[in-house]
Every structure is written in structure tokens, then in C-alpha cells.
Amino acid sequence: MAADSELRRTPLYDCHKQAGARFVPFGGWEMPVQYSGLVDEHNAVRNQAGLFDVSHMGEVIVTGEKALEFLQHVTSNDVSKLTNGKAQYSLLTNESGGVVDDIIVYKRGDNDYLLCVNAANTDKDFQWLTEHNTFGVNLDNVSQQYAQIALQGPKAVAILADTLKLPAAKFELDEFPSFTHQTFKHNFGNGEVEILIARTGYTGEDGFELFVEPNAAPVLWDQLMENGQAEGLKPAGLGARDTLRLEACYPLHGHELADDITALESGLAWVVKLDKGDFIGRDALAAEKESGSRRKLVGLEVVDAGIIRQGAVVTDAAGNEVGEVTSGTKPPTVGKAIGIALIDASSAKLGTNLLADVRGRKLAVKVIKKPFYKRGN
Amino acid sequence: MSTPQNCKFSKDHEWARDEGGRVVVGITDHAQVELGDIVFVELPEIGAAVSKGESFGTVESVKAVSDVYSPVDGVVEAINEGLGDAPDSVNSAPYTDGWMIAITPSDSSQLGELMDASAYDEYVAEISK
Q1: Strand, coil or helix: what is B125?
Q2: How many domains are contained in chain A?
Q3: How far apart are CA A314 and CA A366, in angstroms?
Q4: Is the confidence at residue A2, as pLDDT, over 50?
Q5: Interface membership of A360 toward B (CB under 8 Å)
Q6: Within this chain, do residues A73 and A101 fall inside the same structural domain, yes or no?
Q7: What pLDDT, on the 0 to 100 scale, is given for residue A377?
């Protein structure tokens, strides 16, 4: 990990400082972990709205005649299903079916795609894509050219419409469905700004992710905060982002996703399209599908008093090691200690009683259904 | 929150208060702010021996787990059972409802080795720079 002095700052650093953020190093960046408090921010996202700086995320543009064929080769989902203006959750898989990264693929136009990748993986992913570019496509790491802001929560539509001075109907789901994106132009007083807005997120709530040039990011952030104030919008940090995604059971690379955990073990069969044709890792994943996965990601509820966290060893009642916790805490909306663990398929049945070793204490845990939280309609 | 004058303080951000010969221990306001929202406190059994500078329990915030260190040698005489249902008392009232354990000290002179309120305030100001 880079020393503090080498940490990068997003274009919104001053906005966070002003809002009283506390910062932590994350993926080589100095990022706000919380402002008013993790629980307060978490609850704002569930009940009103929260604003996240996700400018640390990486962006790669793929263009060229064979852009589609290239993406079909390096990702596990079926990119041919994407039409202009659509977005798709997908994986960069390795030869053994492990996950190099989880990404979102945005189709911007014919032979023109934008990939959004994890901050800590940006360089690794770009290198991976470059190495596998036997298709002659253009790969452009444009991470420096985009700031990214996530507006998440039930009030997101109202706040975005107010900020862009547009009717709310334009942002309702029938006009602007999940996993689609649109480009807007808006003048905040300093010239026209182009904003790519996607109906995507990582919180389990409705919301948007806004891509904008770095210079325009602070004014966009401030305008959103100002217009959202009456709706209860709060700036939210990485701490709340983690508890929100954990309740919704969205996997996090480095926890539930890794080079040595296969996409099927991670429970992502829905983005592994074995019938789309060949792609990196397809053979391994097809074989695993045939024989059954050896391990599985499960939800755990902690029965005893205590908290389980990444790395806690899980054993069965007889004391045999069956796996390891990948994420865990006592998140605010769920209100009880829960976690996700990667365990042997034989111990993965709902209701199975297991033990998690927390600093020498064996806490009783039970396999429960995922996700822990699902948004009501 | 002002630092209470009737407590002594460790560099690990525990407070210790002499209450008629027994030493009541908790974590400071500065510590609870740093930790964030506390969701679980693990305490020792009554009767357990504790040693100055050694961990007697853990505090779990939503984000992370931290050890809590004993400011004196002694034996645990009482634990705050109320933290089982209300661990957030450590956030809302670190010096009162959020107390953790009461110790019968084996060497009461050890309290004198800790910082007083103004020295602790200076210490926090120094490390927060």
C-alpha cells in the first residue's frame, strides 16, 4: 500500500473536507470514510438519500470495429445483449474461472463501450485487458478524465430532477429504467457541462451514478447537496457504502470476489453466460457447472453475542474447518450481526449450524438466506 | 464533551475513576468518536485478573474491532451488563452509562501514574495535529 503522502485525492476532496469528513486510505486513494456518522449516513440512504464520491473508480473506454468481440472474450456476461444506452453488470474472469474484477459495461454507441472498474484494480484490469487484446481494439484508461458521484436512495429522482431543472418524470423508472444511461447537458453558471447518468448503484436502493469531468465535479456535488437538503440528503462515506452493499449482498472484490474464487462459487451464475461462445475461463466454469461447485458463498447470522469479520475461520459442529468469513458486521438496517462466508458446499444448506472463530471464541452461526435486505416496492 | 476532572486517563484512551477503592474503567469520548458507532462490547468475566496495559476486552464498531486495555492491575469486580443491550451507551455517555468494568486494584498507586484531565486534553490535542 502506498504511503499516505502518495495517496491520490479526488476532485471532490475539498467538498469533503468542508463537510467534516474523516479520511482513510482506500485502494491508493485518500477517501472519506464518514461525515456525520456511519449509521446516520446509512439510514439517510435507506430512508432519504445519500451522496457518495466514487471518483476513485476506474474507467476504461473500448472502441474499434471488434470492440464487441473483444468484450465477449474478456467478460463473462453476454455483451451482445447490450443496446445503445444500456448497462450491464459483468466480470473479468481468468482461465480458472476466478474473478479478476467485477465491472459495469456501458454501451455508448456502436463499437463504443465504457467499462467502470474497481479503484484498487484499475491498473491491474487495464493491463489484463491490454494483454488479452488480440482483437486490435483501442483501449483507453480514462480514469483521470472522470469524476463519479453516486446519488442513492428513495429521494434520488426528486433531487436529481431539481438539480438539473428537469421534470421528475424524466427520471422515473419507465423513462429511465435500471441499468440504462443517458447523457445530459446542464449549465450551473460556468458553461455547459456534460453528465453521463446511469441508473446503477451499490446500496440496494434506487439511485444514479453520475460521470462528469473532474473540473465540473465540485459544482455538481454542491448543487446536488443544496437541492437535496430539504429532502434529507447527506454526504455518505465508504463506511456506509460498505454496510449498505453488505446488507444487499453485493459482492466486494477482495472479499467475496478474488482471483482464486470462481464466479460460480461467488454465486454469480446470472452473469456467466456459458452459451454465448468462448470467453476466458469458460471451459473451467462449464466444467464446474457440470460437476457442481466445491464452495459456496452463504449468508450467516451470528446466534451468539459478537461480530464476525473477514478472515474468521468457520468450522462445523465437529470442529472441521469448512470455510472463512469474507465480510461481516452488525449493519444498521438489518440490526443484527450477520456476515457472508465462503464455505464447502456440503455445509452450505440453509439452517446449517456452524461455528465462527473470533479471536479464539467460537461463536455459533447459522446459514441464512441472502440478501439480508431487500428494498420494498 | 468536557473531560471529567474526577477521572485519570491512559495513552490508550481509557479513563479510570476511583470510586471508594474500586476503579471504574471505560473509554474516553475521544476514543468513542474515533471508533464510530459501537455495536458490541466484549467484557471479561467477574473475577478475572487484569493487568495494566493488557487487553481486557474488545469494542466493536460497525467498521472495526479494537482492544480495550486495563489502566491498572487487579481483579474484575463488576461488569456493565447494560452494554449487552445498549452498547451505544459507550457513544452517547462514555463516562457514565458507558462504563465497562470495575476493578479491585492490587496496587492503588498505579492510578497516580495516569494522566489527569488537562494532561489528557493536551495529549489528545497533540496526537490529533
Answers
A1: helix
A2: 3
A3: 11
A4: no
A5: no
A6: yes
A7: 55
